[in-house]
């Protein structure tokens, strides 16, 4: 969406061009248009703070305390300076002076009915105003004491509001609050990152706060569960985190439209800055979500906006979404079929555009099928795809003689009139005598046997005539890409058993894939036999077979050792590692003959001769790092001893050992064996490293000890605070000993109750008498289950 501060109106269709989707091939789900006319005039002098949407009009509130009534085009119809509740088409009004600022107001969804004259206001309190039978307005406090109320949504008989602590839902029918949903991220300031609420239907509330989204369902409680509980309860059916902070939510069928506030870090200054807000369509799942589309919106002044400055309002009937910011109002709507075709034409996907137009020809208004088809033909001609263009003419031009004449003339002008070949490919075979055409083509080939166009045409004629063997031979001679498709389509595997070498020479990768996918038709044994005289192709086939299944070609693993050694040495070692069927002695013999040191080392170690393998690394490769790595892998003390003995007269080896063996072997064993007076390169640095490693281990141990002590103390304090808290005892609790209610049914009777830290409760007379050795009482249940004693924390007497 391109920003134009000076323009009064402007389409926002360019949003996808400047957004992140300009590089992707995904079609946007929404199209955008800036709300102009009177809105532009208002926001040049004032700033939008809120908006409410109706099917017939809009109400826009500003920072200067004014309310504008607008039509859906953004034209101003009325203006108000005083906050009041009044009927647009009736004479009733309500005026009230409040003792504190009003943050939010919500009117009963059916306020026009005489029985529904109710509305609520939110500030420090949530006040419900309703008109009595004497036409007097009375108010009552629904909630207070948890900070400012900044969001209220009323749907049916349910009111949802958000304050500093969380979200509450109130049932206006039963006059009961039915739930409290606490906010997750308490580190965010509720005034800077306010809660977003929206009702999907009469019983589904969607909550967005910070980067968290919760979908709550209000359900009826079963009569057997009622007791003193509300008749309804709330269940969270979906909960997930988003990538950015949420500024607004709206339902779209079974998906969600989310307006997100984005902060990014500048690559140059490495400072955080306000980026363009995003409008995402997501598919909620029980514990996560799937992104369907995402658009970055360039609203005016986005660089200065905060999360609280953005709002998302929507019109349920028309799937219109209004993105409100202080300096701009943008309307997003679902794209129709004409928009879809526009996008396909813009991306030069003419064939898809033509198909979409044919499917939805009754619904499209701005496009014609013939115009799209002609544009498609022109596009193909411009790209030089003349054969494809000629094929499309038959479908697009139909029986329109004038258009056919024009297109034929155009092809003639550019010298690309290949009528015969195109007709053979495109016209149905029953339109002409196939055998006569075959004979005519063969006669022409006697004069020009290398004419590829005629050969390809003859192969197509053989295919129409179901003479697949001859067609296959021609395709293989031409090395035509459709040869594999022909084999699959007509199941010609019995015809290619003696042509495997030709197929492999043509395209070994496709040939191998085809042969392996059809093992039931051409066996592995048959393929290996056919390729016996071409060992390089035999290797390609067996290698791909081994990659698919390590065990299917086990009978050929011995043969593969030589093939890998000859044609693919880099994959020999991985093959030896993964194969459990190749003979190790044979492999060792081949590797030693060819002086393959790494493979020989691996085979020696696998055969248990680790000392010989280590000796070869040191004597053949002279690589101390690889020798140390090998010794680490084997984790054998004798190997370390051999490595030290071999390295003791080689200063570079000693340096490598000093730098690497500290965590596996005591460096003192090596240092004591160094001859006096021997010059060792970088000895000082190596010794310093050993000491630093030792000091690091000591520091780590001390740090772990400090953390352990601090955690223990913290948990002890937490346990102490927890045990100091009071415990609720009511008539629902029972004595864990006699299983009778812990409190007497007659409150006037005296009683004595003991409550332990483990929350088990007993009548005092049900507990055993403390012994003389220990006056402390312990919970019988926890002591019996070895959970710890849990001494008494509270004794209640009356």
Give keywords.
798 residues, alpha+beta, 27 helices, 31 strands, zinc-finger, endosome, Znf_RING_Vps41, golgi apparatus, protein transport
Detail the topology: elements first, then pairings:
Layout: H1 15-18, E1 30-34, H2 38-45, E2 48-53, E3 58-62, E4 67-70, E5 76-80, E6 85-86, E7 93-94, E8 104-107, E9 118-122, E10 125-131, E11 137-144, E12 151-155, E13 158-162, E14 166-171, E15 176-182, E16 196-201, E17 204-209, E18 212-220, E19 232-241, E20 245-252, E21 255-261, E22 263-265, E23 272-274, E24 278-284, E25 289-296, E26 311-315, E27 320-325, E28 328-334, H3 337-346, H4 350-359, H5 369-382, H6 386-397, H7 401-413, H8 419-426, H9 434-447, H10 452-464, H11 468-478, H12 483-490, H13 500-506, H14 508-517, H15 524-530, H16 535-548, H17 557-567, H18 572-578, H19 584-593, H20 597-606, H21 610-621, H22 624-634, H23 637-647, H24 651-660, H25 667-671, H26 683-724, E29 752-756, E30 761-763, H27 780-784, E31 792-797
Antiparallel strand pairs: 1-28, 2-3, 3-4, 4-5, 6-7, 8-9, 9-10, 10-11, 12-13, 13-14, 14-15, 16-17, 17-18, 18-19, 20-21, 21-24, 22-23, 24-25, 26-27, 27-28, 29-30, 29-31
Protein name: Vacuolar protein sorting-associated protein 41 homolog
Subcellular location: Cytoplasm, Cytosol; Early endosome membrane; Endosome membrane; Late endosome membrane
Keywords: Autophagy, Cytoplasm, Cytoplasmic vesicle, Endosome, Golgi apparatus, Lysosome, Membrane, Metal-binding, Protein transport, Transport, Zinc, Zinc-finger
């Amino acid at each position: 969406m391109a920003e134009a501060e000076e323009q009064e109106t402007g389409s926002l269709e360019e949003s996808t061009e400047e957004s992140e989707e300009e590089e992707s091939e995904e079609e946007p789900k929404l199209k955008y248009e800036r709300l102009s006319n009177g809105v532009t005039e208002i926001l040049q002098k004032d700033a939008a703070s809120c908006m409410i949407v109706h099917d017939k009009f809009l109400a826009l509130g500003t920072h200067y305390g004014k309310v504008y009534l607008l039509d859906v085009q953004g034209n101003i119809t009325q203006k108000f300076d005083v906050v009041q509740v009044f009927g647009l088409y009736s004479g009733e009004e309500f005026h009230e002076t409040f003792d504190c600022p009003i943050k939010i107001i919500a009117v009963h969804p059916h306020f026009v009915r005489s029985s529904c004259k109710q509305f609520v206001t939110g500030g420090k309190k949530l006040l419900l105003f309703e008109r009595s039978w004497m036409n007097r307005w009375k108010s009552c406090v629904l909630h207070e004491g948890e900070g400012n109320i900044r969001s209220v949504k009323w749907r049916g008989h349910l009111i949802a509001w958000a304050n500093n602590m969380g979200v509450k839902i109130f049932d206006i029918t039963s006059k009961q609050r039915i739930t409290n949903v606490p906010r997750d991220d308490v580190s965010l300031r509720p005034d800077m990152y306010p809660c977003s609420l929206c009702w999907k239907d009469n019983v589904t509330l969607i909550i967005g706060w910070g980067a968290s989204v919760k979908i709550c369902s209000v359900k009826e409680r079963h009569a057997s569960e009622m007791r003193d509980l509300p008749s309804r309860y709330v269940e969270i059916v979906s909960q997930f985190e988003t990538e950015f902070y949420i500024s607004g939510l709206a339902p779209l069928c079974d998906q969600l439209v989310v307006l997100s506030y984005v902060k990014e870090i500048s690559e140059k200054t490495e400072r955080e800055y306000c980026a363009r807000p995003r409008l995402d369509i997501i598919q909620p799942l029980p514990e996560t979500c799937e992104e369907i589309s995402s658009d970055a919106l360039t609203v005016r002044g986005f660089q200065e906006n905060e999360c609280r400055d953005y709002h998302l309002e929507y019109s349920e009937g028309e799937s219109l979404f209004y993105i409100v910011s202080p300096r701009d109002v943008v309307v997003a709507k679902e794209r129709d079929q004409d928009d879809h075709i526009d996008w396909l034409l813009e991306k030069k996907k003419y064939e898809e555009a033509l198909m979409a137009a044919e499917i939805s020809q009754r619904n499209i208004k701005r496009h014609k099928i013939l115009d799209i088809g002609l544009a498609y033909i022109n596009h193909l001609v411009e790209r030089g795809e003349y054969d494809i263009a000629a094929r499309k003419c038959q479908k697009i031009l139909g029986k329109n003689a004038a258009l056919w004449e024009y297109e034929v003339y155009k092809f003639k002008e550019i010298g690309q009139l290949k009528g015969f070949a195109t007709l053979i490919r495109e016209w149905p075979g029953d339109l002409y005598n196939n055998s006569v055409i075959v004979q005519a083509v063969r006669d022409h080939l006697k004069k020009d046997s290398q004419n590829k166009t005629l050969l390809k045409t003859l192969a197509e004629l053989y295919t129409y005539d179901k003479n697949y063997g001859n067609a296959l031979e021609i395709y293989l001679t031409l090395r035509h890409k459709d040869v594999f498709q022909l084999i699959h389509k007509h199941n010609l595997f019995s015809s290619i058993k003696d042509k495997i070498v030709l197929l492999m020479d043509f395209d070994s990768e496709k040939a191998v894939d085809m042969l392996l996918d059809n093992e039931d038709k051409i066996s592995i044994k048959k393929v290996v036999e056919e390729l016996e005289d071409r060992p390089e192709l035999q290797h390609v086939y067996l290698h791909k077979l081994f990659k698919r299944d390590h065990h299917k070609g086990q009978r050929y693993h011995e043969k593969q050792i030589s093939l890998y050694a000859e044609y693919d040495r880099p994959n020999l070692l991985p093959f030896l590692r993964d194969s459990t069927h190749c003979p190790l002695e044979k492999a060792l013999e081949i590797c030693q003959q060819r002086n393959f040191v790494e493979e020989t080392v691996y085979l020696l170690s696998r055969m248990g001769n680790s000392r010989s393998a280590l000796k070869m690394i040191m004597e053949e490769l002279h690589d101390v790092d690889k020798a140390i790595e090998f010794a680490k892998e084997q984790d054998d003390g004798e190997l370390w001893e051999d490595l030290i003995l071999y390295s003791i007269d080689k200063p570079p080896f000693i340096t490598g050992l000093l730098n690497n063996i500290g965590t596996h072997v005591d460096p003192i064993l090596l240092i004591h064996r160094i001859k006096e007076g021997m010059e060792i390169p970088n000895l000082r640095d190596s010794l310093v490293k050993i000491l630093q490693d030792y000091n690091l281990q000591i520091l780590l141990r001390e740090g772990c000890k400090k953390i352990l002590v601090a955690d223990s103390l913290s948990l002890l304090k937490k346990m102490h605070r927890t045990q100091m808290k009071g415990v609720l005892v009511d008539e629902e609790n029972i004595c864990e000993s006699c299983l009778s209610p812990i409190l007497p049914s007659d409150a006037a009777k005296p009683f004595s109750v003991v409550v332990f830290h483990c929350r088990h409760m007993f009548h005092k007379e049900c507990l055993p008498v403390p012994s003389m050795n220990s006056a402390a009482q312990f919970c019988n249940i926890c002591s019996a289950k070895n959970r710890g004693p849990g001494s008494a924390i509270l004794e209640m007497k009356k």
